[in-house]
Amino acid sequence: MTSQQATLFRTHSALETVHVQEGTQVVLSGWVQRRRDLGSIVFVDLRDRSGIIQLVFDTSKGTPAQVMEAADRLRNEFVIAVQGIIVNRDESAVNPKIETGKIEMTVHALEILNEAKNPPFYIQDGVDVDETVRLRYRYLDLRRPEMQNILRLRHRLIKEFRAFLDENAFVEVETPILTKSTPEGARDYLVPSRLQSGEFYALPQSPQLFKQLLMVSGLERYYQVARCFRDEDLRADRQPEFTQLDIEQSFIPLDTFQAMMERMMQSVFHTVLGVELTVPFQRIAYQEAMEKYGSDKPDLRFGMEISDIGNLVQGVDFRVFQQALESGGAVKAIAAPGCAGYSRKQVDELVNFVAQYGLKGLASISVLEGGELKSSLSKFFTPEQLQSIAAGVGAKAGDLILIAASSRQQVLQSLGALRLKLGYELNLADENEFKFAWVTDFPLLSYDEDEQRFVAEHHPFTMPKWEDLDMLESNPGAVRAQAYDMVLNGYEIGGGSMRIYRRDIQERMFRTLGFSEEQANEQFGFLLRAFEYGTPPHGGIAFGIDRLVMIMGRGKSLRDCIAFPKTSSGTDLMMDAPSPVSDKQLDVLNLEIRQRQPVQPRV
Amino acid sequence: MTSQQATLFRTHSALETVHVQEGTQVVLSGWVQRRRDLGSIVFVDLRDRSGIIQLVFDTSKGTPAQVMEAADRLRNEFVIAVQGIIVNRDESAVNPKIETGKIEMTVHALEILNEAKNPPFYIQDGVDVDETVRLRYRYLDLRRPEMQNILRLRHRLIKEFRAFLDENAFVEVETPILTKSTPEGARDYLVPSRLQSGEFYALPQSPQLFKQLLMVSGLERYYQVARCFRDEDLRADRQPEFTQLDIEQSFIPLDTFQAMMERMMQSVFHTVLGVELTVPFQRIAYQEAMEKYGSDKPDLRFGMEISDIGNLVQGVDFRVFQQALESGGAVKAIAAPGCAGYSRKQVDELVNFVAQYGLKGLASISVLEGGELKSSLSKFFTPEQLQSIAAGVGAKAGDLILIAASSRQQVLQSLGALRLKLGYELNLADENEFKFAWVTDFPLLSYDEDEQRFVAEHHPFTMPKWEDLDMLESNPGAVRAQAYDMVLNGYEIGGGSMRIYRRDIQERMFRTLGFSEEQANEQFGFLLRAFEYGTPPHGGIAFGIDRLVMIMGRGKSLRDCIAFPKTSSGTDLMMDAPSPVSDKQLDVLNLEIRQRQPVQPRV
Question: What is the 3-state secondary structure (H, E, C) of A320-368?
Fold first, then answer.
């Protein structure tokens, strides 16, 4: 029988027993990891959040008979409290795999605090079970040490961010979760108001406007670990709610702010991971990142840069290349080290891979040991021409040169993806390296063919570069933004900008984005008004905490970095949310569901 | 003209200039607090978040002519950057009211970073302006130093809570904002799901279930500064979203947990306010608190306790008292110190005050200097009887004894409210005292006459006292809970309990609350299931951060303690939320507004 009320209360955690003197009496509590019954002796591995310790139930060592009986009833995941003494193990019985391996506890008293059914999976690291089962039984999944370690890493990371920002006189301010829907409202989660029938709050996609208003308020240095929400069609690794470290500062030049953020990362990586980062981080202009890496978030742990070989193949009678160049496209190449010996089948796999970006094929040149070249292009190119390509790409013996020809965008996208794929497959990226960089000089706007208008590349509050400001009306696509992304190992971990702080510039921006004056006022009147009362120059950044935890924890999935994540269809499998609500609840909100859809099977 | 791009960047804050050597060149930036033009000299008070410093524009001291001209254009709230040198003021010009009062800056260069219209109210403390104006222009309201101080107090308070909890090995875990609607769903904010048409998320009223599941997960020590949501009819000082410090711990006896929370408060009050708290805090059982103070959150900074005088008036032929006693009610009294001389009109005001609780009147006895009694009851009571009442109430010379007779509840409620009113009016509560206490032994359940069933006094996860558990079915109203509130100066600042951790007890609780087995499973199946896999004994508490900031900052309103609060009708006056949304947004959600209400005027 389960005891009615606990009377034994923990004096030490499992791990703390390592530091007590032999013979000390302690009380431990936790879960039964496993139990081995040798007849006259029962061994139990007790697990608490600090680790595992071996309990010994042995009449010959003083365990009372009724405690032996109770020990017989123990099963995995039972919750128990035990009283006993810490003793050193015999040399032969030392278990070097656990931190308490040199000691064990001889049990004198046992309380079963709660019983447990056999769990759907064994509580241990690296468990091989379907993720839906893990998510449904998340409370068991989180018992696994590796999951608890991620939660603790997350905790420490956020704590150290706060410590740095506190030290630098930033003030954390909580901004509202119930706020106003914006024109990009298609991605807003809405919350019907009961008191203002027919009206809605929206959950914030970010605290952007609030933090800018806090700068108008003269707060000067703000941060917040902020929950954000985006109702997107969830790709494999997106979550409807996510956490941002949101920062904003007034009266600083862009580079001073970047330097502050670099010092922050340096401090956090030092404290949390013991990793020393070198500052300043590399700066790459957006254009250069695209040209060299086919990506605005390049993984800089390895080279394999993209080379333009358009001028080297110009005029050579090879239709694929000529067509690309004549239609304004590009011919570019990368050199994959050590892949000169790739079989036809292996190269075909790469061709299949880039096909997803619309690329029709890849030409290849193998640089053999000794420098000889082998290529499908030999029919069209002289050996000298091939050599000049190899030299242009900087290929070395053993490299496989892969060449793409198509529109500039398709070529860069394909080679960029191919570069990453090969880089990871060839283990060119050091798992233990954290390679930061800033990507800068983003275009302010991009033209949206669907909407037939310019849209903001980051958001409509981003300040243009002063020297490009004159082009805001005449040549919007050429205006560069005072924007910067922080990238790490191929991920964008933070994005920010200096902001527009003058009403006249903000109005010009809205006009360029196709807002009528009325629309601008309806949606952002409060901001335009605020700008009239003395707004300081300001800028900031937001870091994605979930992703950063994933990279620092070397995890594979954002879901593993969030205590209670949702599936890619936005479902909480443990709680079964979202769920239907009562008619009474809808009545109160004056809402009606237009067409009841047949219930969809959940993933 | 406003300069195009800032070139002067702050080297010091206003306050930091106090520590620089005379003659040092610095750059400052901030807002024009005010400008005094003496013709050849212009004085400008420059405000940044650290304070105020006087700028001097004076050609004879080296201010260039064009800077003098620019200084002429400055108006209140203009944003500027200035370069110049710090000089000591003449003795006669020292301003002891500001921290930089012994120095000033002679300006050599000025940049106007942004202009400002005349604000709707002057940016200073103690501004006397309608709160709706302050809320509409919140970004200006927050410029006032007293508002910034509250934000900073809030920041430091939360920071110190985190520091204590981190030190004690608690781990902060973020729990979902998009979660599942509960049966008390009437107070849930709902969020329609687009991907699961016709289904809804709910915003959490608290992370209660998640934190319990984290205990099932073996996390052992959890906390979170958590945003919570409750869609209530907002009373004057409620907010639809509020912040809780949410804490949960496993494997601890109730008193150990309380002691930990006391140490936390001690640490936080020491660090943030320099106030030393004495622990342990006083403990008062709920019944005693109600009897003595007519409140379950008594302000213990002063006495004026309620005395039962039923036995002293028993049998005296005074109809009002006799009726109360015969119908099972009560006759109770308080003694208001120094009020013996209250006029008839003053006493009538007190009678009017208690009338709001349904009380028909108050009898009174004045204890004059020398001990003589004066009373409206003299017709019915002998002098000896009156003296025995005065003695029973513990009244002293100068006291006014106020007596209420009615149902027990009405008497306690009235005298409890009267005690507070008089206590504050008579300045019995020391503004600088922070008087903590625990209120314990709450009833687990109360009978809801409307619903004709027992409802949970705290929530349905509260553990009954073990010794009362047997009465859960036979006498639910008599069962006491393992619940505790932390009260401070008349406010409940935190409420918590040990939780039910066994499925059998949780099922009995749901049955007592009138849940069918089906309902219990539908709503809380995940919790009942979780309890089957080894749930440790656990308990916790949640503190209201907004209220605590208010008490510690000696504020009058919760709204002043929140950066961007909502009005009592749930409106954000600055952003104008909630607001109508587009038909397209509703289409996507398959929602229809049942009846469009005429637009209500907003408050």
Answer: HHHHHHHCCCEEEEEEECCCCCCCHHHHHHHHHHHHCCCCCCCEEEEEC
